[in-house]
UniProtKB/TrEMBL annotation:
Origin: domain of life: Bacteria
Pathway: One-carbon metabolism; tetrahydrofolate interconversion
Keyword Hydrolase: yes
Protein name (record): Bifunctional protein FolD
Gene Ontology CC: cytosol
Family: Belongs to the tetrahydrofolate dehydrogenase/cyclohydrolase family.
EC number, as in UniProt: 1.5.1.5, 3.5.4.9
A GO BP annotation: purine nucleotide biosynthetic process
Gene: folD
Ranges annotated as spanning the membrane: none
Residue ranges of domain Tetrahydrofolate dehydrogenase/cyclohydrolase NAD(P)-binding in the record: 144-285
Catalytic reaction annotation: (6R)-5,10-methenyltetrahydrofolate + H2O = (6R)-10-formyltetrahydrofolate + H(+); (6R)-5,10-methylene-5,6,7,8-tetrahydrofolate + NADP(+) = (6R)-5,10-methenyltetrahydrofolate + NADPH
Length: 295
């Protein structure tokens, strides 16, 4: 009997992502019946194999929900101006509703200038300072896909956020920082930890919800967590055998947690799902006459 039961501890981002993508697909079809196909453009610079894998994933998923996907591949030696020109062209292209520049960029390119060049209305990553600012003050905007996806995971697993202590390890602009803001908006008490934090375990052991976005394979052990904590693992690393793994030592932590995301199959698929969601929202803004009501 036990072996046919689904694992209630596991937060299945792949399954939750699939459900949300079905909803997205239906709304894409609605737009298509009005003669509008949502279009996503992805710019990738250089030939990092991991980046190419993620980008292929994003393209495949966008096509699966009926969107148009355009891939712009640029050499690692490309000039900053060429990237800016490319973005300007996409900004002016009415068939493109979302623009994503895969990060990180080569060192000779100023990421901030590149992000600033994207039309905020097409910034489906939610990285443009205007959109980051709107998010900070609680105005509706494109939310950064990974934190947004994690909020959806918490919602769909009926995890209460209000009044809970959420501890975030990592303070990057794309994951940690916006994650804290979104949880704060939902009335969590938020603590940020980072590489200069003293006695990390002291802080993480107080977490009802622990979000880990560090980039170090299997770094978080059961000694870091409180019994019954909800553990969200953002990390994407390779272990000693070259296998994909998170920042959390899943096998060590699982028993002590009340719920936990696996890697792969946790946060990753949700990031892509929210990218599709943001692209859909952008297309609806432009194409829909009967103004969709969506948060
Ligand atoms: N699944 C998904 O959808 C996504 C996964 N990722 C993955 O998530 C991970 C984090 O990504 P990202 O936020 O971009 O990474 P960054 O490298 O930009 O940031 C890492 C953060 O972790 C902190 N940190 C590093 N070492 C420690 C430590 N020993 N103790 C405490 N804090 C530490 C750093 O602190 P400091 O600021 O002091 O340097 C920094 O704030 C990576 O594995 C990445 O591949 C990223 C995006 C999406
Ligand atoms: N402008 C920009 N936007 C991003 O959103 C962005 C970025 N740059 N740079 C890199 C990070 C990383 N990221 C991931 C997305 C999906 C998976 C994903 O789909 N993971 C699968 C497994 C993938 C595999 O098998 O390799 C999973 O966890 O199940 C992982 C990582 C988005 N990022
Ligand atoms: Mg750079």
């Amino acid at each position: 009997m036990e072996d046919i039961q689904v694992d209630k501890k596991l937060i299945d981002g792949k399954a939750i992502g699939t459900i949300i993508r079905e909803e997205i697909k239906e709304r894409v079809q609605k737009l298509q019946s009005k003669g509008c196909t949502p279009g996503l453009a992805v710019i990738i610079v250089g030939d990092d194999p991991a980046s190419h894998t993620y980008v292929k994933n994003k393209q495949k998923s966008s096509v699966e929900v009926g969107m148009k996907s355009e891939l712009i591949q640029l050499a690692a030696t490309v000039s900053e101006q060429e990237i800016l020109d490319c973005i300007a062209q996409l900004n002016d292209d009415d068939s493109i509703h979302g623009i994503l520049v895969q990060l990180p960029l080569p060192k000779h390119i100023d990421e901030n200038r590149v992000i600033l060049a994207i039309d905020p209305a097409k910034d489906v990553d939610g990285f443009h300072p205007v959109n980051v600012g709107k998010m900070m003050i609680g105005q509706s905007t494109y939310l950064s896909c990974t934190p947004y996806g994690i909020i959806k995971l918490l919602e769909r697993t009926n995890t209460q956020i209000k009044g809970k202590h959420a501890v975030i390890i990592g303070r990057s602009n794309i994951v940690g920082k916006p994650m804290g803001q979104l949880l704060l908006q939902r009335d969590a008490t938020v603590t940020y930890c980072h590489s200069r934090t003293k006695d990390l375990a002291h802080h993480t052991k107080q977490a009802d919800i622990l979000i880990v976005a560090i980039g170090m394979a299997k770094f978080i052990k059961k000694e870091h967590i409180k019994e019954g904590a909800v553990v969200i693992d953002v990390g994407m690393n390779r272990d000693e055998n070259g296998k994909l793994c998170g920042d959390v030592d899943f096998a060590d932590v699982k028993e002590k947690s009340s719920m936990i995301t696996p890697v792969p199959g946790g946060v990753g698929p949700m990031t892509i799902t929210m990218l599709l969601k943001n692209t859909l929202l952008s297309a609806e803004q432009v194409c829909d006459t009967d103004k969709h009501e969506d948060k």
